[in-house]
Amino acid sequence: MTAIHQQRPLDARLAHPGVRVNGRIGVVLVNYCGWRDTLECIRSLQAVQYEDGLDMIVIDNGSDDESGERIRREFPNVHLIEMGRNLGFAGGCNVGMRAARERGNEFIWLLNNDTIVDPQAPRALVEIARARPDASFYGTIISSESKPERIWFARGAFDRRTGAITNVDYDRAVSDLDRDPRPVNTDWISGCSVLIRCSTLDQIGFMNEDFFLYKEELEWQLRRPHSAWVVPRALVRHKGGQSGGGTGAVMGRVFMSIRRRVFAAVARSVGCLFRGRAGLEGTSASGLGGAGRHHRTAYSRRFDRRALAQREDQVITPILLGEQPLTSAEPGV
What we know:
The two termini are 17 Å apart. The strands form two sheets. Strands 1, 2, 3, 4, 5, 6, 7, 10, 11 and 12 form a ten-stranded mixed β-sheet that branches. A two-stranded antiparallel ribbon has the order 8-9. Among the domains are: 25-139 and 186-234, Alpha-Beta Complex (Spore Coat Polysaccharide Biosynthesis Protein SpsA, Chain A), CATH 3.90.550; 260-320, no CATH class. The chain contains ten helices and twelve strands. By secondary structure, it is an alpha/beta fold. Helices cover 28% and strands 19% of the residues.
């Protein structure tokens, strides 16, 4: 199946009569030449006992391997959308969110394809979503596959005065947070694992696709400040943070400021992870880490770094710092 990617304003109203209060979760996975990880993630989701149902949606971002065939063969009931080209992580997620909404799900769970889900995670997320209907984003504790007892990501902090971003809980013990079942408020949640209501799209719109690789989920969540909550009893293991110092080692430090180009600063911090002429081959599905893995990510592509740096100065940094209105941007589904 091939979907057509249409451009809409970020603040487009998306009311759809098929959306119901039914508890069902549309799980969106973005795949790019990573079918092994995608299949393993789907297997973990199939082991979940969630009464209201999971509607699994895979967006294939123009893979040039056998991803589509492999996914269809092993999981014929998964809703597979093959784009035929690489839309990036934000673009792929936008297509998936639109599909999840049109298919009548109440919730959308954006999940990296290189994750393994704890069987209790969906129920824990929805329970907190019901208890905190004023919130917009609900995240899990994410650990590394190689160190499941340590946190890879839970809470993110963002300083609007300086543009600094930090991974607050990197390398803490999972037990430090999951012993208390109460949700924890945070500035932002990693796009590796985040749940929203379909109706939330009415207020905030889709992800900004100018953020092809980094921090699209941050800008998205900053449209509704103080509305992100981490659910300690919801756990996900992530493969991408394990090699060469990985994402966490970088995200554990501040890696962006208003006086430096956003992506260029990240590139300098994690230069050891870049591979190939694209400069981004081998990065994990979260946008950082996972160097040298056997597949390309959901959104690696070749680009001109100088042109990208210019675009950062003109588009990305002003949006993050609130200097440019969101409605001036046009990407979306």
